[in-house]
Amino acid sequence: GHAVNSVPALCIAHLDIRYESPDDEAWFFQKVHALLDQYRTKPGFQIELVGGFGRTPKRMTKPLKHLLQA
After folding, report:
1. 19: Cβ–Cβ under 8 A, 6 or more apart, which residues?
2. Taking Cα atoms as reference points, which of 11, 30, 10, 28 lies closest to residue 19?
3. Confidence (pLDDT) at 27
4. How far apart are alpha carbons 70 and 68 in whole angstroms?
5. Which pLDDT score, from 0 to 100, does residue 31 have?
6. CA-CA distance, 29 to 41, in Å (whole number)?
7. Which has the closest alpha carbon to 47: 34, 58, 60, 63?
8. Which among 52, 48, 51 is positioned nearest to 19, based on CA atoms?
9. How many whole angstroms separate alpha carbon 17 and alpha carbon 15?
10. Could you tell me how far CA 68 lies from the centroid of its own chain?
């Protein structure tokens, strides 16, 4: 059996995020780095950010908003 409240040895998160402008990308990375920095100095934590945005910004146009609301 496994313990009910166990901590895994490894955790991996994959995020699929689209953004509207380069400013959004900069904002997102600032927030992520601030969050990760809170844990980098804690004993037993090793955090690594790999990758980045692989697509260009997706501008939200009226036709696209209409399509997404359908």
Report:
1. 25, 28, 53, 57, 58
2. 28
3. 92
4. 6
5. 94
6. 19
7. 34
8. 52
9. 6
10. 22
CB 54 within 8 A of CB 16: no
Residue among 12, 10, 27, 11 nearest 53 (CA): 27
Whose CA is closest to 49, among 66, 24, 67, 30?
30
The tens place of each residue's pLDDT in the chain, 70 residues long, gives 677 788 778 888 888 888 888 898 889 999 999 999 998 888 888 888 888 888 888 888 888 888 888 7
Alpha helices in 1-70 (DSSP H): 22-40, 62-69
Give, as one character, the DSSP assignment of residue 26: H
Q: For residue 1, what pLDDT is reported? A: 67
Is the distance from CB of 24 to CB of 57 less than 8 angstroms? yes
